[in-house]
Structures are given as C-alpha cells and as structure tokens.
Write a structure and sequence with these properties.
The chain is built from three helices and no strands. By secondary structure, the chain is an all-alpha fold.
C-alpha cells in the first residue's frame, strides 16, 4: 500500500505529537546536560568486552 507524502507527514505528526497530555506524561524527563545516553555507554562497554575476550582467546591460542 502506498501512502502519499502529505498523508504520511500527517500520520507521523500524529504519532510523534507531544502536545497530548497523555504522551507528555509518558515521556521521561530529559536529563540536563547529560549528552551521553545509557545505550551509548552500554554499547561502548560491550565493544570493549568483545575486544578483551578476543585478546584472551588469542593469548590462549598462542600458548598452544
């Protein structure tokens, strides 16, 4: 099904609207000046853990 661009914009505006009181209540309060989201920190820690694991595996293979 194809949606016309103007209609798509209206649908997205309705879905993303923050003017409704119910949607404002569900939104978490924005942290002041944090700048780094929790997901960014978790991703960074995950990448570091993967590289550390690869390093340990390489060390173990080297000893064989």
């Amino acid at each position: 099904m194809r949606i016309l661009p103007a209609r798509a914009a209206r649908v997205l505006h309705r879905r993303r609207s923050t003017s409704l009181p119910a949607r404002r209540a569900l939104r978490p309060a924005a942290s002041a000046g944090s700048g780094v989201s929790v997901l960014d920190v978790v991703t960074l820690l995950g990448v570091i853990a993967v590289f550390a694991l690869i390093g340990l595996i390489a060390k173990g293979v080297e000893k064989l």
